[in-house]
TrEMBL record:
It comes from Cohnella abietis. This is 7-cyano-7-deazaguanine synthase. The active site is at 182 (nucleophile and sulfur donor). Signal peptide: none annotated. Transmembrane segments: none annotated. GO terms for molecular function: asparagine synthase (glutamine-hydrolyzing) activity; sulfurtransferase activity. InterPro entries: Asn_synthase, LarE, Ni-pincer_cofactor_biosynth, Rossmann-like_a/b/a_fold. Residues 23-107 form the Asparagine synthetase domain. It holds the Pfam family Asn_synthase. One of its GO terms (biological process) is asparagine biosynthetic process.
Length: 277
């Protein structure tokens, strides 16, 4: 990607993406059902037809609601869709939850997808990384590069806002879907990841979503659950404080706190030394 790519209009970026997709002939698209991968899959379908294949991996840190939604969306889009499964908790380096946790997770995932792609004679693997993702601490990007996975949205200079606008134009239901990251990102570095913590987080975030909160993160600090919500939802959280507290306590937390700074991506990275980031 060059400065010239960044300065392109939205229409030019979309055209560049189409050109890149057509040049591949066929590809396997890592599909989570989120904003970015759904847009990429749709554009791949437009340019490659049946030669664009989606793949979704079930895992301990990917909530069943997200997996089920991805399966339904791929079916609605009528694209070839491979379903597979990985177990991150079998990876000791992932479980240890050092600051490079994401690297070990993505390394295992992309190696698995490479084997699938080879079995199905698909020469390229694509992911939904966009330009904005490059601004945060993401050690998983190194694993992506090592395994030869391409990020055509980055190559086309597309930001998250670009993708939402184009997704709306395509009538994709994900155009305004909240951002999502795997549940392990809610656990402070150095705290081992286990199924009990993941289950607590999954149930807690599902409860908040069921209450109608749009963008939620529940951060796991031992006995304490720290809620990150959109600033406009903070008053609503106070109004529901008793029911929220009762629910999260029933999931194993003893204390429930509200982060007044609100939702932001990668807040666990704020504790990392600058030299690590």
């Amino acid at each position: 990607m060059t400065n010239n790519t960044i300065s392109l209009t939205l229409e030019e970026k979309n055209a560049a993406l189409g050109l890149s997709l057509r040049s591949l002939g066929s590809a396997l698209i890592a599909f989570s059902g989120g904003v970015d991968s759904t847009f990429l899959l749709k554009r791949a379908q437009q340019e490659l037809g049946v030669h664009a294949t989606a793949v979704t991996a079930a895992s301990e840190t990917f909530p069943s609601r997200e997996f089920d939604a991805a399966v339904k969306l791929a079916s609605d889009m009528n694209v070839p869709h491979l379903l597979t499964e990985i177990s991150e908790l079998d990876n000791e380096q992932f479980v240890a939850n050092a600051p490079d946790r994401c690297y070990h997770c993505k390394k295992g995932l992309y190696a698995h997808l490479k084997r699938l792609a080879s079995e199905h004679d698909l020469p390229y693997i694509l992911d939904g990384t966009n330009l904005d993702d490059l601004g945060d601490y993401r050690p998983g990007l190194a694993a992506k590069s090592e395994e030869g996975v391409r990020s055509l949205l980055v190559e086309a200079g597309m930001t998250k806002d670009d993708i939402r606008v184009l997704s709306k134009d395509l009538n994709l239901p994900t155009w305004n879907k909240p951002s999502f990251a795997c549940l392990s990102s809610r656990i402070p570095y150095g705290t081992p990841i286990d199924l009990e913590k993941i289950d607590q987080l999954d149930k807690s975030e599902q409860y908040l979503l069921d209450l109608g909160f749009y963008q939620v993160r529940v951060r796991h600090h031992g006995e304490i659950a720290r809620l990150e919500l959109m600033p406009q939802d903070l008053i609503k959280a106070i109004e529901y404080r008793n029911s929220i507290t009762d629910a999260l306590r029933s999931y194993g937390f003893k204390h429930v706190t509200l982060d007044l700074h609100g939702y932001r991506t990668g807040s666990m990275n704020e504790a990392l030394p600058q030299k690590v980031i």
